[in-house]
Q: What sequence folds into this?
């Protein structure tokens, strides 16, 4: 697994977590990510991931009219499958982050 | 509330790139609309296009294309339509002149050249939309490709006459009428489907003036001049007006 693939995997998990908190759209996801202290390399990189997540059936989309009129906006909602994947991601993340933390704190456990 | 020039250009290039990469039209529309929405909001907060697409828009376009499946049915439909359009166009011209007679070389050569031309157009659209050359380079690029294929077509006709290859098929009077009507209908049907009357327009300016001049009894050398330059002028005018109307939208 290359480092960029690992980052994509983490970002995908974070997007699932955000969508899991309630229906949302692309730009709002970025704002929420920023709110949690993420500073993205490029904002557009969420869309290839969202495309893939939709293909895999983790999220569904609906188009809704803007409150202010104008073009339609695409909203994402999490599916049952998405919730399972999110749980799996949480477990994976705990083991990775736990390992990294231990390593950086210098606690060796063999 | 409109997009900046740079973002507008990115969205247009992305659409062209994805379509010429054989991605489904409805899906392409969906993702470009979504990005447009994102860019609009980002620009209102003073962010640049680069903030969304990264340093290399080309790489970003490829990333998006990588997550969208090829629509083979759509590609096959386009190739069919393109070949059908070119064949109908050529047949109509020959039917009007009463020269529906072809050698084996022509019967094989025309479709092959048409397919190569289609391939060259698709590749150059992809190149232009992702690499973004200057307008001047872009124009030269198209001109060289179109000119090159024009020469190929002419070369084929020339070779056919030089070698006086025998015709394998010649239409009788009834067949001529049937082909004339069918090819004209095909052109109109394709125009309807693609919502572009460009090919019908080209057929009209190329094929109608000679008929009118002949009916009016104009001398051959005068009519030759008109036939050579009038269509080119009218096509140029059509493109200019069309571009102008698109810009105003």
A:
């Amino acid at each position: 697994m290359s480092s960029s693939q690992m980052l994509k995997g983490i970002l995908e998990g974070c997007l699932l977590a955000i969508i899991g908190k309630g229906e949302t759209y692309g730009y709002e996801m970025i704002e929420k990510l920023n709110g949690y202290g993420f500073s993205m390399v490029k904002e557009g990189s969420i869309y290839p991931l969202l495309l893939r997540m939709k293909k895999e059936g983790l999220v569904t989309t609906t188009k809704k009219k803007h409150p202010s009129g104008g073009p339609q906006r695409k909203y994402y909602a999490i599916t049952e499958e998405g919730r399972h994947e999110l749980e799996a991601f949480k477990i994976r993340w705990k083991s990775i982050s736990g390992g990294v933390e231990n390593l950086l704190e210098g606690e060796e456990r063999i | 509330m409109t997009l900046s020039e740079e973002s507008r250009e990115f969205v247009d290039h992305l659409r062209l790139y994805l379509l010429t990469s054989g991605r489904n039209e409805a899906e392409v529309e969906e993702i470009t609309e979504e990005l447009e929405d994102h860019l609009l909001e980002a620009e209102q907060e003073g962010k640049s296009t680069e903030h969304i697409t990264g340093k290399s828009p080309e790489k970003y376009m490829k990333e998006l294309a990588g997550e969208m499946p090829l629509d083979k049915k759509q590609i096959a439909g386009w190739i069919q339509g393109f070949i059908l359009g070119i064949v109908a166009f050529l047949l109509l011209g020959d039917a009007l002149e009463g020269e529906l007679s072809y050698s084996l070389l022509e019967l094989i050569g025309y479709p092959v050249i048409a397919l190569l031309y289609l391939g060259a157009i698709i590749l150059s659209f992809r190149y232009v939309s992702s690499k973004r050359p200057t307008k001047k380079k872009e124009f030269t690029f198209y001109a060289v490709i179109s000119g090159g294929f024009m020469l190929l077509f002419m070369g084929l006709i020339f070779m056919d006459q030089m070698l006086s290859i025998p015709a394998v098929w010649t239409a009788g009077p009834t067949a001529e009428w049937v082909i004339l009507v069918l090819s004209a209908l095909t052109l109109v049907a394709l125009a309807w489907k693609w919502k572009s009357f460009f090919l019908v327009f080209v057929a009209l300016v190329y094929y109608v003036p000679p008929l009118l001049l002949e009916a009016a009894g104009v001398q051959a050398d005068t009519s030759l001049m008109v036939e050579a330059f009038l269509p080119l002028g009218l096509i140029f005018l059509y493109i200019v007006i069309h571009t102008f109307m698109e810009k105003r939208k």
The beta strands of chain A are 59-65, 72-78.
